[in-house]
User: Which sequence fits this backbone?
């Protein structure tokens, strides 16, 4: 199973990115658990660090891959799973990252004007965590489609 999932022909950066993304979503889930235990400082630190780390991974690995591999083929090949999954992952992942950055600013700082800050953010954070899990599923599907041969 391990060899089938982590194809030795896949670029090491793709495998590392996949492992990082899985770890980050698990970390965000752990951070949510910390909030339920009323460990809000640790929760905020955990979530913020992971969201910022994800921004770095997006900038270094994902954005260049999308720009060179997928973007030139859109919209004409959007119906092909190779491009469609990657595009869905990129769009939904971008929404999740921007929303997470907004939550960090709106719930954890006083940078934004008061009317833009979040008052009741528990349900929004839970929804956002669900979106992150969905993005991870699209990311895994993209990895499988790109690097794991069908048998």
Assistant:
């Amino acid at each position: 199973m391990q060899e089938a999932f982590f194809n030795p022909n896949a670029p090491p950066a793709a495998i590392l990115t996949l492992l990082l993304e899985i770890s980050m979503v698990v970390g965000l889930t752990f951070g949510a658990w910390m909030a339920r235990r009323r460990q809000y400082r640790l929760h905020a630190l955990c979530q913020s660090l992971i969201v910022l780390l994800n921004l770095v991974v997006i900038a270094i690995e994902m954005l260049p891959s999308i720009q060179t591999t997928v973007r030139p083929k859109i919209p004409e090949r959007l119906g092909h799973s190779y491009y469609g999954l990657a595009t869905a992952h990129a769009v939904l992942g971008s929404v999740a990252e921007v929303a997470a950055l907004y939550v960090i600013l709106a719930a954890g700082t006083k940078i934004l004007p008061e009317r833009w800050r979040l008052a009741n953010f528990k349900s929004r954070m839970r929804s956002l965590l669900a979106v992150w899990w969905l993005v991870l599923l699209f990311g895994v599907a993209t990895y499988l489609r790109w690097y794991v041969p069908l048998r």
Summary: The radius of gyration is 17 Å. The first helix runs from residue 2 to 5.
